[in-house]
Each structure stands twice: as structure tokens, then as C-alpha cells.
Fold this sequence. Notes:
The complex is a heterodimer. By secondary structure, chain A is of the alpha+beta class. Chain A has helices spanning 10-17, 23-35, 37-56, 65-79, 83-88, 94-118, 130-133, 136-142, 161-169, 173-180, 196-213, 219-223; strands at residues 126-127, 188-191, 268-275, 285-289, 295-299, 305-309, 316-320, 327-331, 336-341.
Amino acid sequence: MTTFDRHPDDERLSAHHDGALAPAVSAGIEAHLVGCADCRARLEDLRRLDADLTSALAHEPAPGWDEAFASRVAQRVAAESAPRRVHAWWPRSPRAWVMVGAATAAVFVVAGLWAPFTARDTLVTLQQAPAVEESAPLASAVEPAPPAPPAEPAAPPAGSAPAARRAPAATDAPPAAAAAAPEAAPLAVTSEAADATVSDEAAAMRGEDVAAAAPARPAPVAAAAPASPAPATSSREAAPRLTGSFSKGFGAAAPRAVGSPAPASATQVCGRITDSRGTPLRGVQVMLLGAGPRTRMAKSAPDGSYCVEGPVTGDTLVVMHVGFEPVRSVVRSVAMLRIRLQPVGTLTPRETAPER
Amino acid sequence: MGMDSAPQRTPDDGPDDDTLLAACQRGDAVAFGVLVRRYQRAVHRLAWSLTRSASDADDLAQETFVRAWRAIGGFELGRPPYPWLARICTNLAFSLFRSRRRRPETAIEPLLERGEQWGVDDDPADHAAASEREQRLRACFARLSPEHQAVLALRVMQDLPYDAIAQALGVPVGTVMSRLSRARTELRRLMEGHEGGEA
């Protein structure tokens, strides 16, 4: 080798010392070392450093450590599920990950729609604005992802017990809504109970109330019934599709809206308006559009809170703000209505983190 | 490169690694127990080199095996398990170090003053046994970057060949070579500074 008369650099000498070089290269260095005391000293330094480090960092555990350690690990391992179960379904290809991603997204959408049923039974039922409701099947048809067929056979004109049972459980209803979700409302509406007591009460009466509420649905919505799978399921607002924004679902059981489209608990619709990050929005225009000339307006306070007086079941609540997608929902009963506005044209369904 | 006889392995009469690993992948925790016994000393030694603390080393080693069990379904049979275990251990040590640097309340400041970036010598017996030069060497080793500490621990303490170190660190073999050389140079420089400063 031509390295006979050249001093190996540190890296090479270090690798030679470790026996990591190709034999020919090492032989060349050996040949050089024979005639170079400096390099022999460098190599000796390396050996010494290794030896010193080995003893400086040597550490043998105390007697009995082996058994103790092994059994600690065994306990931890026993607490874990068998690895095979974890990995049998673990996606290995990028494509599988995409599938998992899609499925996860669908789950989140469903969960989002579902949350109001389970976590926060609410006294508000939101419904699509009639005109929009008609577009729901279209939206459903566009979105292929979710597993369940978008609309199940027209629900028996609500009010029947089975429908009532299905709605709160929502096992089959949400997929339909989920199908529409990414394509539909670019805005997110969350309805929530005003407080825990209401929530509890609502939970207690969930079952029957849905059934009771169903017949009370305002005419325009009822007309669109074939498109909506179950009376009290979350319905999607297929707002003008300026963006493909993800919509956090909303939905609600409709307790106590018994009987007729009479004024729902008479008082007011209150709530909070935030942007998609949860920051309160002030000065947001809130309008309550009734069938007649009863249009009431309000603006949100600095903390995003608002109240609109005198809602009637069937009124449409419209929330508008510059730079955000408008929100429309039909009031079915009164409670807290938290609204989350999505910025115009910035989000896509895939990019939007599932909220909550 | 040699070192194929895997000094990291504690000898036993059990089945070979591949047989055990295959059983582990079928969910056999007993087989995994045999593997743990086989490699726990090596993993613990590595963990101790990186943390120089008996309790940290214990936690680190234990966590290494638990993570290994969780991930064993993805292990490629036919490869030696130790570089894989060493990789888990090293990564855990790196994140331990990072989290300590992020959270000053874990008393990293005093450590830095003492010239130790991570880990504490918490075993008086070790101190007593170590010569003065060894203690200096330990202190200097502790001042190396985690990457340099890891590459030296794997090569010098664990006697792993370069390709296994490359697997353990997730870097190319060429990087192992240059990193080792730089780590040695740095360690020697620190030692010289240390000795010069004290003389």
C-alpha cells in the first residue's frame, strides 16, 4: 500500500485499533508502524485510553441482582398485552398506514358527532337548515371513506321507540353523518349542556325524550326526513363549500321538547363563540331567524358569550363573522350552544385535527 | 472485525436467539424471560455507562426490555438481538438526558458544574474502588456529548463491532468510525486539560 510512509490520520488509526479496517489497509498501517515510533505511541495511547475507560466505567451489579431484575422485567412484561396481538394488525406498509389514518379520521369524526350524545346530553337539538338538509345526501355520496352506508332506509317516522333507542346510542346513525362531515359544514358547532345538572337530567331522560321530541320536529325538517337517518341524530350542515373544512360534528338528543313546535322553554339561546382554536370571538353577529318577522339579533361579548331572546323551536340560528364560515342551525330546544367558527378557506378535512 | 462471539451475551444452555425471538413473536413471555436473562447484564452495563447511576441504569435497562417486548413483533429474525436492544437503551438514555436538560429541577446545574452532563455517580463503593485517574476519566467521559459517550460505551465497554454499533446508533458505519475517533480525541483532550489544570 502507499500508506507505508504516510502517517495514518486519527480516524484510520482508531479504526485500525478497533480492528475495523479492511485487512489490506490494516496491513499497510502495520507496515508503517514498524518504522514510525510516533504512530506507535499514538496507537499505544488509544489502547491505554480504552483500558482505562473500561476499568473506570466497569460496573457489576450487586449479587442477587440478576434474579431481581429478571423478575421485575417479567412482571412488567406480564402486565403488557402479548406483543403478537399488538403487532398482528400493526400496519407495515405506508399504504396500510394511510388506511389506518383514514379509519382513524373516520373514528374521530364519528366520535366528534357522538360526543354530544354521550358526554353532554344537551337541551339543544341542532338541525340543518331545510335548504341545506336537502343537500345532505349529495354530500354523503361524495365522501367514500366511512364504512357504513350513508343513509339507512328511511327511519320510521320518528317517535317510535326503536328510533328513540337508536338515536342516543347512535351506533349506526353517526356514520351517515360522518360520511357527510368532511364534505359538509365548514364550521363547527358544539352544543353542550349549560351545566352538569342539566346534563344529568338530560341523561336521565334521554331515552324517552328523543321519542317524544321527534314528532315535534318542525315541518321543514320533517319534510327532509328521508335524508336524515334518525330523528335526533346529528345532522350536518352542508354550507356553501368554499372550503373543505372539517366539521366537528354536533348532534343532540332532544329532551323535553315534548309535544308541539311550541316555544321551546321560552327564554333564550345562549352560548359561546370561539374560533377553531377555542379563542373567544367578540362582536360576532348572531341572528335568530323565525318563520315570521321575528328576527332577533345579538353580538357576542368579548368573552365570546351571547344570548338571543325568545327562540322558538324551528327557528334558525345564524352565526356570521368576517373571515369565518357561517354557521346555521335550527333550534329545537333551548340550552347552551357553543359555536366554533372555522376560518374561511384554510383547513381541509385531513389537516384538521379532530377536536376534542 | 471479529467479536462475533458476542461477549455481550451471558452464556446459558437455552435455545438460540432466533428460536427464542420467534417464540416471543408468538407471545411467549417465558422465551422472552430467557432472552432477558441472556442480555440483561449487557444492557445494564450499557445503561450504567451512559448514566453512571445504579438507579438510572436499572430503570433504563428495565424499560429497554419492556420496550423490546412491545416491539418484538417487528424484530427481523436472523439478526442479532443485542444491537437492537442497545439501540432501544441508547435512545431511552438520550431522551432521559434531554428531559433532564429541559427540566432544571432535576438538578442538572450542579452536575454541569461538576462537569457531568448526565447521570450521577451515586455508588460510594464505586468511588472508593476507582483510582484517582479512573475518577478523572469518569468525570471527563461525563463531559462528552451523549453521542460520543454512547459510541465509546458501545465500542469500548461493550466491545461491539462497528456494524453492530451502526445498528445500535442508527447511523452508517462510516459515521461510527469518525465519531469514535472524535470521541477519543475529545476524551484525551479533556483528560490532558484535567491533568494540566490540577498539576
